[in-house]
Specification:
CATH class of the largest domain: Alpha Beta
CATH topology of the largest domain: UDP-n-acetylglucosamine1-carboxyvinyl-transferase, Chain
Structural class: alpha/beta
Strand order of the largest sheet: 1-2-4-3
Strand content: 15-25%
Number of domains: 2
Distance between the termini: 30 Å
Number of helices: 11
Number of strands: 14
Oligomer: single chain
Length: about 350
């Protein structure tokens, strides 16, 4: 498994939480939103709080659900000058969170609440989006000896006094990264995708169904409320459905990722000749027969945008220049090596 920047950030912060000393630890989350949101509640349980920092757009991404919740629980929460500081103790009880901002807030609490002395309930105040990630959380908790009762709707019941037990597990293949090679195949490639779990809880496993739908004639509407990370790969495939319209809807949360992904997908694919219209929470694409080369596009320090543009070369009529290509290291450091092994051609040039 590639040792990505996000994985290193999580390990680094976990080590800092275990370091000796009475002061609040400083946790540098890099650009990892999952590290930040997962560890804020855990830091309160393990160390009585922490000071969090990060890089890029990380500290601009929403933390309001925690801020509101902690105010109710008497936990201090401040966010200023690129730092987020939390201090206090999480009490057992009822925790209410919106389900349509990010599933990472839910996962963070599900990691922390079993360690409290008493039982708790987690109630969602809105419909859950990206529910597959919460399913993965529940599966991971169970594998390490922690039980959570879920009513199938908006409520989770968590017994207190639980402990995590060591376990040997195998991490299954990632459908989120697989999406880019699905796009490569849709553009004429023949990449064999191995070891995918057809029964996975990953919401992004829908990439296989959505790829099939994009191969059919006629207008297609894709709801990405449960799989927003698929949008760059889906948009690339849709851009090359010559003469066909595709609507990618319920995608508003993409505006608060490493980049504003609705904007960057539109800007960069348009530079390559795609026909895209964006709304506040959707994309409408009118398919063209090929993309153009001879231009310069940017990854916007967003790993999924850079991977989308790398695969887009398969549908372009001439080479083009991609700036910020190495930002793929956030989640897939070996992307360009695999790209070359699979037949992709590129040369690195100095700025």
């Amino acid at each position: 498994m590639d040792d990505s920047e996000d994985m290193r950030a999580t390990r680094r912060c976990m080590e800092a939480l275990q370091a000796p000393g009475d002061a609040l630890p400083l946790l540098d989350c890099g650009e990892s939103g999952s590290t930040l949101r997962f560890l804020i509640p855990l830091s309160l349980v393990l160390r009585g709080g922490a000071v969090f920092t990060g890089q890029g757009r990380l500290m601009e991404r929403p933390l309001e659900p925690y801020a509101r919740l902690f105010a109710e629980k008497g936990v201090a929460f401040t966010q200023e000058n690129g730092l987020c500081t939390v201090k206090g103790a999480l009490p057992p009880g009822l925790y209410r969170l919106p389900g349509d901002v990010s599933s990472q807030f839910i996962t963070g609490l599900l990691y922390a609440l079993p360690l409290l002395t008493g039982g708790s309930e987690l109630e969602l105040t809105t419909e859950l989006e990206s529910g597959g990630y919460v399913d993965l959380t529940l599966d991971a908790l169970a594998r390490f000896g922690v039980t959570v009762s879920y009513d199938g709707g908006r409520r989770y019941r968590i017994a207190g006094g639980q402990t995590y037990r060591p376990a040997q597990v195998t991490v299954e293949a990632d459908y989120s990264q697989t999406a880019f090679f699905c796009a490569a195949n849709a553009l004429g490639g023949s990449v064999e995708l191995l070891n995918l779990n057809p029964d996975s809880a990953q919401g992004d496993r829908v990439i296989l169904e959505y790829t099939r739908r994009l191969a059919e004639a006629g207008e297609v509407t894709l709801d990405v409320s449960q799989c927003p990370d698929l949008v760059p790969a889906l948009a690339l495939m849709a851009a090359l459905r010559a003469g066909e319209r595709t609507r990618i809807v319920n995608a508003g949360r993409l505006r608060i990722k490493e980049s504003d992904r609705l904007e960057t997908v539109t800007t960069e694919l348009t530079a390559l000749g795609a026909r895209i219209t964006q709304t506040p929470d959707s994309l409408v694409l009118e398919g063209v027969s090929s993309l153009k080369g001879g231009v310069t596009v940017r990854g916007h320090n967003d790993h999924r945008i850079a991977m989308m543009l790398g695969i887009a070369a398969a549908g372009a009529d001439a080479p083009f220049t991609l700036l910020d290509a190495q930002c793929v290291a956030k989640s897939y450091p070996g992307f360009w090596s695999d790209y070359r092994v699979l037949g992709g051609r590129f040369e690195e040039v100095s700025p």
